[in-house]
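Example record for the data management plan.
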Amino acid sequence: MSASGLRYLLITPAKNEEAFIELTIRSVVDQTVRPVCWLVVSDGSTDSTNEIVSRAAQQHDWIELFRMPERTTRDFGGKAHCFNTGYARIAHLPHQVIASLDADITFERDYFEFLLDKLANDPSLGIVGTPFSENGRTYDYRV
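Corresponding structural encoding:
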C-alpha cells in the first residue's frame, strides 16, 4: 500500500500558540498528503490562537477549530484531554491513521507522506515519528 492510500486524521491540542501556530498551519497546508480532517483543539487559549486557526479553517474546509473551556493550568493531562476530546469529535470520519501534532513545529512538505509510507510498508509498526531538534539538542526518536 502506498502512503497516498492511507487516510489520516490530524489532531493538535493548542494553548496560547499565537507565536507559532501560523507556521504550523503553513506546514500542514503545504503537505503532499493532507489529512481527511485537521482538528485544532484550543485548550482555552486567551491569545489570538483561535482567530489564527479560524482564518485557516475559513480557507480550507478540512481544517476545524474546537474550543475547550479556559483552564488555569498548563499540563500534559490537559493536552491528553484535548486530544481525546478531539478524537471523539472526528472519529466517525474515514481513516486508518490518527496523528497527533504539536502546535509549535514546522516540517518539510513530504513529512506526513514519509510517515504514512513507513506505516504502509511495515504492518508491524503501530507508531511512527522522526528526530527533531530543540535548543541545539536533537531528540532522536527513530521511525
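Summary line stored alongside the record: The mean pLDDT is 89.
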